[in-house]
Design goal:
By secondary structure, the protein is mainly α. It has five helices and three strands, in the order H-E-H-E-H-E-H-H. Helices cover 46% and strands 11% of the residues. It has a three-stranded parallel beta sheet, sandwiched between helices.
């Protein structure tokens, strides 16, 4: 499955939900590839395994999680952090963490589009036309 958030950036992006499949795909990554691993806790075993597999193959691993020290951050080359988990101690909700993750992903997408230039704009325009046709009332 292509990762919708980055489809318009002109970069090959794939997202998998099945742990077996994403570990297999991680094993095929090389020095020219990047694995972007997201885990709120940084302790999701399957995601940590995929990061370790990808890094062993030479891929750059970028993690996005809530904790500076976790199994995932130890397995990553580059670590990005959202809202520290203890800031929601009295709220008992993960919404600030999710909003932080979405914001970071949105910034990364914008940076990819900026670097890719006109090609990214053209791809985004093409995909938007198709998506708009799917909306009711159009």
């Amino acid at each position: 499955m292509r990762l919708p958030a980055f489809t318009g950036s002109a970069k090959e992006c794939i997202s998998e939900n099945d742990p077996t499949v994403y570990k297999i795909k991680a094993s095929l990554l090389t020095e020219q590839d990047v694995l972007f691993a997201i885990s709120s806790s940084g302790r999701s075993a399957d995601i940590v395994d995929a990061a370790q597999i990808a890094r062993h193959g030479g891929a750059t691993v970028i993690s996005l999680c809530d904790f500076a020290v976790s199994p995932l951050t130890k397995s990553s080359n580059i670590n990005l952090y959202t809202t520290p988990r203890d800031t929601t101690l009295f709220l008992n909700i993960d919404m600030p963490l999710i909003i932080g993750q979405i914001s970071i992903i949105d910034i990364l997408f914008s940076c990819c589009c900026r670097i890719t230039g006109q090609h990214a704009f053209d791809m985004m325009h093409t995909t938007k036309k198709i998506a708009d046709k799917e909306k009711l009332g159009k």
